[in-house]
Design a protein that fits this description.
It contains 5 helices and 3 strands; from the N terminus they run H-H-H-H-H-E-E-E. With 117 residues, it is α+β, with helices and mostly antiparallel strands. The radius of gyration is 19 Å and the shape is globular.
């Protein structure tokens, strides 16, 4: 049975919208922050604290050692569960506010690129 042409056209337009939306929504300012959020999610879920620690800035490294951070990240994963999604809510002056959803918790996460200038 063939799908009526107007119906298949609507699905085609909707699919095109879904495919192009991330490209439209992402700007040069937000792309690195979105990438940082996704990498953080991947490293935490994969239990790769060293990789997650490497994303942190120098000031963070001065305050917290790799061993301390490994213990903290393992505790967070055990308490909060798997990081399921991250959704950018706003970006201003290089700082992104995202909504993170984890198995046992939903809350906001603030991300900023390290100023290397």
């Amino acid at each position: 049975m063939a799908i009526p042409r107007p119906l298949s056209m609507k699905y085609g337009i909707f699919l095109l919208f879904l495919v192009t939306w991330p490209a439209v929504a992402q700007t040069p300012e937000t792309a690195p922050l979105d990438s940082l959020a996704e990498r953080s999610k991947r490293y935490l879920n994969a239990q790769q604290p060293d990789s997650l620690y490497a994303l942190m800035g120098e000031a963070f490294h001065v305050q917290i050692s790799v061993a301390q951070f490994t213990q903290i990240s393992q505790g967070l994963k055990a308490q909060l569960g798997r990081w399921q999604s991250v959704e950018r809510r706003s970006v201003k002056d290089g700082v992104a506010v995202t909504l993170k959803t984890m198995s046992n918790h939903t809350g906001f996460l603030t991300l900023a690129e390290q100023n290397t200038k």
